[in-house]
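ingest -> validate -> predict -> emit
validate: passed (alphabet ok, no gaps, 111 aa)
predict: started
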Amino acid sequence: MGLDMYAFIVDVEVARDGVVDVALGDTATEICYWRKFNALHGWMEDLYRQKGGSKASFNCTTVRLTANDLDRLEMDTGNNKLIPVNGFFIGIQEIYPEDLESVATFIKVAR
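emit:
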């Protein structure tokens, strides 16, 4: 068990107007993978809640990122606003330089 997160590109027909809990469908293409990056998990869960996500557990859940979300993630990453979170199987509290580099790469690919 662990904290695994994936970023996918999906066809516009799949995403439609959904912002949370979007079914990925068969055409989803993985563009990034993170393991035990709990600060990013916390950031994504906050975004999920802000967009109306209501599942009790932010596990196996999706949140759609817009261009504005990517801009905010980029700014928050650069300004050290990714804060490690606590929880069962959530991983270590330290943020490594390669974690931040992976976010920058993800943002570039996603755009």
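The radius of gyration is 13 Å.
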